[in-house]
Structure to design on (236 residues):
């Protein structure tokens, strides 16, 4: 795999040699982390093409503990779990936590690059599955992404569910109460919980400079609309 500027993987492993082995095998740099918490603190500023995660770290820390959060942050990056532990139950636990694949240590470079390529291709196929066109913006509910051209915004799970609900409405307005029931059912949440989610969605559309936006009408009903329609309605 040729090195392309801007591409990199991430390695979470307390062995300082592993990320070098991965970089040599894949042909792209691998940013090393030895601690899950340090990785999580930096995660929002990172966009890897793949993640390699060791299970048994120092001080009895498990790399699997941060896997679900990383899966939510990097929906389009395959996560490959690595371990020298022979416990087969770890395979199921890794996959259940959000991993795309599992590698045994010591690392076989040929196996590593083959598995990474396969998983990247799978994620690229998922990227194009069930995409919803919203004016000049593309929403992928499966991945929780909102994109315009080369720019991508990653939506939190609940915000993605709201956008899918609104998208399926084809311009129909929904009450905030109906959205709340869809997300949380009968569970009690604070009054401004929906407003915070809607604010996140509005920010995502603005960040992409999209011609699509959220419209809130009298009585707190919400729908999707072209931003110029919202401007004209407000002006009138």
């Amino acid at each position: 795999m040729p090195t392309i500027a801007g591409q990199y993987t991430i390695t979470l492993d307390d062995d300082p040699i592993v990320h070098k082995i991965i970089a040599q095998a894949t042909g792209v740099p691998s940013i090393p982390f030895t601690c899950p918490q340090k990785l999580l603190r930096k995660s929002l500023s990172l966009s890897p093409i793949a993640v390699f995660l060791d299970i048994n770290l120092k001080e009895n820390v498990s790399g699997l503990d941060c896997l679900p959060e990383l899966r939510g942050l990097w929906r389009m990056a395959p996560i490959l779990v690595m371990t020298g532990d022979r416990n087969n139950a770890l395979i199921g636990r890794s996959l259940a936590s959000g991993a795309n694949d599992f590698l045994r240590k010591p690392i076989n470079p040929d196996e590593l690059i083959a598995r990474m390529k396969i998983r990247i291709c799978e994620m690229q196929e998922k990227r194009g599955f069930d995409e919803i066109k919203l004016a000049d913006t593309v929403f992928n509910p499966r991945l929780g992404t909102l994109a315009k051209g080369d720019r991508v915004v990653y939506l939190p799970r609940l915000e993605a569910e709201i956008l899918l609900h609104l998208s399926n409405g084809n311009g129909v307005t929904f009450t905030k109460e109906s959205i709340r029931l869809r997300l949380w059912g009968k569970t009690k949440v604070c009054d401004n919980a929906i407003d915070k989610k809607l604010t996140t969605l509005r920010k995502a559309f603005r960040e992409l400079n999209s011609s699509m936006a959220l419209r809130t009408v009298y009585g707190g009903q919400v729908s999707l609309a072209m931003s110029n329609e919202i401007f004209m309605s407000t002006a009138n």
The first helix runs from residue 18 to 26. DSSP finds nine helices and twelve strands in the chain.
